Amino acid sequence: MASEDSTPAPPTPVPAPAPLEVQAAATKDAKETKLPSRPAAVVLKTPKGTQDWFGADMIIREHLFQTITNVFKRHGGSPLETPVFELKEILAGKYGEDSRLIYDLQDQGGELCSLRYDLTVPFARWLAMNSKDRIKRYQIAKVYRRDQPAIARGRFREFYQCDFDIAGVYDAMIPDAEILCIVVEVMEALKLDITIKLNHRKILDGLFTVAGVPADKIRPISAAVDKLDKMAWADVKKEMIEEKGLSEEIADKVGEYVQHSGTIQETVDYIKADANLSANDDIKAGLEDMTLLNAYLGAYGVVDKVSFDLSLARGLDYYTGLIYEVINKPAVAEAAAAAGGKGGKSSRKGKKEDPASQVGSIAAGGRYDNLVGMYGKRTIPCVGISFGVERIFTILKARAEKDQRTSEVDVYVMAFGNKESDGLLLERMAVANQLWKADIRAEFSAKVKPRGLAQYKSAGDIPIGVILGEDELAAGQVRLKVLTADSKDQGQLIPRENLVEEVRKLLAQL
Amino acid sequence: MASEDSTPAPPTPVPAPAPLEVQAAATKDAKETKLPSRPAAVVLKTPKGTQDWFGADMIIREHLFQTITNVFKRHGGSPLETPVFELKEILAGKYGEDSRLIYDLQDQGGELCSLRYDLTVPFARWLAMNSKDRIKRYQIAKVYRRDQPAIARGRFREFYQCDFDIAGVYDAMIPDAEILCIVVEVMEALKLDITIKLNHRKILDGLFTVAGVPADKIRPISAAVDKLDKMAWADVKKEMIEEKGLSEEIADKVGEYVQHSGTIQETVDYIKADANLSANDDIKAGLEDMTLLNAYLGAYGVVDKVSFDLSLARGLDYYTGLIYEVINKPAVAEAAAAAGGKGGKSSRKGKKEDPASQVGSIAAGGRYDNLVGMYGKRTIPCVGISFGVERIFTILKARAEKDQRTSEVDVYVMAFGNKESDGLLLERMAVANQLWKADIRAEFSAKVKPRGLAQYKSAGDIPIGVILGEDELAAGQVRLKVLTADSKDQGQLIPRENLVEEVRKLLAQL
C-alpha cells in the first residue's frame, strides 16, 4: 500500500499472477511467522479517494444539482447520459501526460475500456457518432482520475463534473453570451457572490505577438501569465525570463498589457487606444467578438457581473475564443486576508480542469471550435461551462452547517393516551397513508406499542407532529403540533378530514 | 472480437504486453501485407452492452426516476450514494458463480477494485461501516455485469438498479407492509396495472418438509417450483423427479400445495385447514406474519393488490421471510395470448436479480435478515424492493411513443415583421431573459437575422410562441401564439409586462 502514498506513477504492466509454488511458499511463511492462518478480515472502507454520501450532505448536494439542472433546462438544455466507461482508444491521446491518471478496466476478454476522465471527450464522441448539428446538452456525472486525493480540499478520485455546452454553428457570440447568462442565474439561485473573469484567446495571442513573444513561446508564456492570480508579477516575470527565456524588455511589455482589467468597454477602449495592439488582425477579430458580447450581456442584464481581465489565460491549448473563470468573491477576499501568495497552483491540464483547486474559482470554460473535429470528419464549434460542483458543495455546506436538517420528512404520526397498552398502530398507518396519498412526507414508529417520549425522540428534526388519541379519534379529531425544540405549541385539535389541508398550511408557514 | 460473442469466460490473467521486438515484427508484417500504415481510425461506438441516452428517451427516464424518488422520499427514504467501484475483496464471495461477471479495474498500483455488481453489497458494506441501526435508504444507480447483452430486451452490461430497503429491528411486518405500500404508490403514479405475488420462505420451507422433501433438496425443489409461472406443472414435476430425484408421491404432494393461490386470507385459511401443514412450526411462524401483514395492508388500503401465491419461490438463498414479485398484468396477458409456455427463464442468481427478464415481473424483493451479518459483527435485519427500471422504461416508452416530446422547452421567442433586415436580436434576448427570470423555459434563434419560417421550424415541438414585431414592441406589446401543428390560433396581442402571467395561463391550459 506504500506506493499509494506517492504521486501515481505512469501505468506499469500488470504483473502476472505469482506461480502456484510461490503462492504456496508465501502461505507457508505466513504460518511460520505465526500470522493468523484464517483469511484476514475484509477491510471495510471505500477505495482511496472515494467516499459514500448520505444524510445532510446528500440533501445539500441534491439541492445543488437540482438548482443547476433547473437553470440548464430553462435554457433548453437536454441531458445526455453516457456510459461510465469508454473504449480505451476513444480516450487515447486526448489528455497528454495526464493520460497516466486514467483508470483502465482489466482485460477480461473483449473490448479494452477505461473509465471516463471528463465529460467532454464522451460528448465529442457522441457528437461525432450522431447527426445532430446543433445541440445544447448538459451532463452531471462522475468522472475518474487516479490523482493524489486530498478529500479535505474536495479533491477526489471519483467526483462530479457538471457541464453545459452549446455545439453548432450560430451567429457570433450569441451562445457565448447565453452561457454567461446561465452562470449568473445558477450563482444567483445558489446565493453566491461572484465575478466572471473574461478574456479572449485571439486577443491574448495577438497581444503576446505585439509584445514580441516568439510564436513557439506563446503557449508557455500564456501558462506563466495564467499564474498572476496566485503569484506576484515579479515572480511571474522571473519565470518568464529565467525559465521560458524571454528578454526582460518583452517580459515588461507583456506585463504592461496583461495587468489590465476592467469592464468589457474599458478594456476594449484600452486596447483600441494602443495603435500597435489595434493593428493586429487577431486582436481586431477578438475585439469584434467582445463588442458583440458586451451588447448581448447588456440585453441579459448581467454586464456588471463580468470583468475583462487580460491576465486570464486558462491552461488548455484547445480554446479558440472567449475564455472565462467564475470567481467566488468571499473566498478570494478570505484568501487575500490569509498570508498571501504561497503555494503553487495545481496542474490545469485537462479541459475545464479542476476549478476547485484554484482559489475562489468555482466554474470555468470557454469556446473550443476545433476539438470535436478530432473525433470525426465534421468540425462542430462548441462553447461550454463546467461547474466545480465539489467546490461549490464545500461552500454551501460551510454556510448551511448550523441548521441543516438530516431528514426531509415533514410529519411524524404519533399515538398518545391514557392507555399505554394501545399504540393505535392501524390508526397511525391509516393517517400516514392519508398523508402519503396527498404527497406529504410522513413517518411513524414501526412499533406496535411505542412509548410516548420515544416517539418524540424518533421524530428527530421532523417539524410537524400529528398526535392520535383514542378519544379524539372517536370524535373524528387529531392533534396537530409543531415539534421544533423551542416550540411551546400545545397543538390544536382539528377534524381528521381537514388534516391534509391543515398540514399544508402549517408547512407553508415553517 | 470473436470472443465477445460467446458467453463470458471466467476472468483470465491479463497477458503481459508483448515484448518490443514482437510489436515491431507485427508492424512490419502489417506493412508487408499492404495494410494501411497510418493508425486505423478509431471506431466511434460505446462499449458493448452500453449505450448513450438522450432526447425523448431521457425525458421518459427522468420522469420514471423522479416519480420513484418522490414516493421514496414521501416514506422517509434517504438517498445513499456509493462509489461506482468497491475494493475487490468487498465483492469477493458474494455472488457465487456469477462472480465471473464482475468487471475488475486494472491493477495500476494501489488497491484492487471492481465495478459494483448490484446495490445491495455496497449498502451492506455501508451499514457495516457505519453506526446506523435503523435506516430507510434508497439508491438509484448503475451497476455493471459482463453478461451477454440483449439490448432489444433491455439487458445491458451497464444498467440502473433502483432499490429501497428498510434496515433495522422493528416490530414484525411493519416495514414489510410499508414496502408493499410503496410498490403500489409507485405503480399507481406510473399508471401501471399490477398484482403483487407474495409468499413466505418459512411457509414454503415448512410445506416442502411436510410434503416429505429431504432437507438437502429443499432449495433445488424450491428453484423448480419457481418456474411454475413459465412452465406447466407436468414439466416442473418431471424436473423434480428426473433431475432432482424426488419420488412421484412427494412431487404430487408438493404440486398439490404450491398450486394454491388467492387472497392472503384465503391462502391462510387453506393452510390452516390442513392439519399437517398447520402443525409445522415454520409454517406457524409464517402464518403469524401473514396475518399481521393482512391487517397492515388493510390499513394501507392495498390488500386487493396482492395475491398469496404458494408457488412463488424467488431464486435467492438468503431470503428469510416475506418474498414478493410485482407483475405487470397487461404484459402477462399479452404473453399468455402469444403461443404459450416455451422458452426457459434466465438465471435468477444475484439478489433481486433481473426482474426485467421475467415475463411481466417489474419489481421484486423480500426480507433478508442475515445478509448484513456477513460483512461485520452486527446483524441487521433488512427488507427491500428492487424496481426493474430498464423494463419499466421499455413499457413506458412503448406507451408514450406517439406523442412523446423531444424537448422540454415551453416558449420560443421569434421576431417577424415587414423589415426582414432587422431580427430584433437584443429584444428577443431581453424577452427570453424576462421568461428565464420567471423560471419559464424559453429559447430563441441564435441568428442575428433569422428568417420567419426558419424560426417556426426551429421551434420544433415547443408549444408556445412569443412573436416580436417592431411596431408592437413600440406599443409595449408582444404576440402570444399556440404553435401546435393543428392550431388555427392567430395569437393575441398582450402588453409585454403581462407576458409571464399570460404564458403561465396558457401553459396551464395545454
From TrEMBL, chains A, B:
It is found in: Cytoplasm. It holds the Pfam family HGTP_anticodon. Residues 49-396 form the Aminoacyl-transfer RNA synthetases class-II family profile domain. Residues 340-359 are annotated as: Disordered. Gene3D superfamilies: Anticodon-binding domain (3.40.50.800), Bira Bifunctional Protein, Domain 2 (3.30.930.10). Keywords: Aminoacyl-tRNA synthetase, ATP-binding, Cytoplasm, Ligase, Nucleotide-binding, Protein biosynthesis. It catalyses: tRNA(His) + L-histidine + ATP = L-histidyl-tRNA(His) + AMP + diphosphate + H(+). GO terms for cellular component: cytosol; mitochondrion. L-histidine binds at D118, L119, T120, R145, Q161, D165, R314, Y318, Y319. One of its GO terms (biological process) is histidyl-tRNA aminoacylation. Belongs to the class-II aminoacyl-tRNA synthetase family. Catalyzes the aminoacylation of histidyl-tRNA in both the cytoplasm and the mitochondrion. This is Histidine--tRNA ligase, mitochondrial.
